[in-house]
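Record minuted for everyone:
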Amino acid sequence: MKMRSTAWPSQQLKNLERIGTLVPEPTSHAEVRRLLDLAQASLSGARTTSLAVEPRFLLAYSAAHHLALAALRANDYRTAAREGHRMLVFQTLPNTVGLDVGVSRTLDRAHRKRNELEYTGAVDVPASETEDLIVAVGKLQKSVEAWLSTNRPELIEAGE
């Protein structure tokens, strides 16, 4: 997990705002807490080995999306686009929480696999990919929590 110290928000996020891909919008303690709680519940479900592989994969993917969205919202941005918004949320992770490139690649592969699974149903999800995704989501969770603790502690502290 590699954290970068950058000016907040990053220049890359400001550039995405300038071209209309991201929209500035203040977040709240309640919104970030809800996203983190949803991520934790999904990740816990994904770790339930008595479930079939595909539901575990989808739960891990859902946890990743909630965490990535929490990271973007903690930077006081939301996506402007409807199409491709999930991918954009993942692509901003190196700029929102300084996520390691290796974890980003795993999430990118998971996003493509999730789309195949959701839209065609004609894809095999190997158990090894599900386990890799669960590990990556655990790293993402640590990155998001560390970034929040350092940069936006008011969003995770008890009370608003």
